[in-house]
Amino acid sequence: MWILVLASFTIQALGTECFLYPIIKPTNPEVFMNVSEIIRRWDYPVEEYEVVTDDFYILTLIRIPYGRMNKNLSAQRPVVFLQHGFLTSSISWISNIPNNSFAFILADAGFDVWLGNSRGSTYGLKHVFLSTNSRRYWAFSFDEAARYDIPASIDFVVKKTGQKLFYVGHSQGALLGFLAFSTLPKLNQHVKFFYALAPAYFFQQIKSIPFLLLLNMPRPVLTSLLGDKDFLPETNLNKILATKICNNRLTDILCIKFIFSLSGFDTENLNRSRLDVYLSHNPAGSSIQNLLHYSQEYFAIRKVLPAFDWGSPQENLIHYNQTNPPIYDLSTMQLPTAVWSGLQDLLADPEDVSNLIPLIPNLIYHKILPTFDHLAFILGVNAPEFVYYEIIEMMREIS
Question: Which of 7, 53, 139, 362 is the most buried (most CB within 10 A)?
Fold first, then answer.
């Protein structure tokens, strides 16, 4: 599916680049590694844990307990929890070289770093009872991820470390934070501060053409084309795309243009030498129901985020004790919050973010970056300078 979508945009992407002759690029070894192997490759310690949610999904948590130069095992380090976005995984925080990847930068700065994984992504595909071949397994959206995944992950980290933590979410990871912290007030007791990067809370002004095409498809058409289970999982096609299709000077330009058509245009901020790493591990999967939930939000009344509509008053009554999906309300979330957003972002559109900002009760800080697109916050070469070091300084003032 990913390759087919890419091919559909090739003609538009060609532009004036056709004169370039193909030169095969060397493949980065991380293309063929999992998240823990990548961390070890750069000489960082890594620990893996499995946490079971209250609805029996099994999620993998990745821990980088200290940096390469901070090996005093008895020292207590401030705890940071990083939650990835839609169709990505924990690898998104370590996809660049160490001095450009937020998880590595945090570890080297003296933090105990934990990487979360949402259900349905590469490292969240297990369940106590259900198989991924089951439709029941995939009957979830960001509602369930916020209600079950975030509390289970945070509770595990707090019990393991004995500390409150800093929560950093990118895109859907930020959305999950807003939903979890506003609907589960007790969770706020375990979190010191919430940092939201490119928060995809409202999805009503989205400008990403590929996603707009999907969101505007009628549900029967969408499910007939894509099924009713998983959506764009990580497969061997990711590796083919990374090493056979986007691995020369002509096609990597096409692939980069396609990525920008998804997320926004920030051409100077993408490390092209790491393109094969990005593509080999992304997309990392979610559920069709999650995509449908975004579609419902896109067509919802402006400035409103509804829970998932199960399709009939009777089904909604079973899930919500009311015939219509409830509307999320951030007014109960008193957690101090800081937001970073980009003006070139096609997914967390500046207008959607501006509609979110007044709804955050305890907003401490909002920084708007004129050149940043959606992926620049996790992959951008300028992200340390404009985002990461600023967050670390804020954390140090609080710790």
Answer: 53
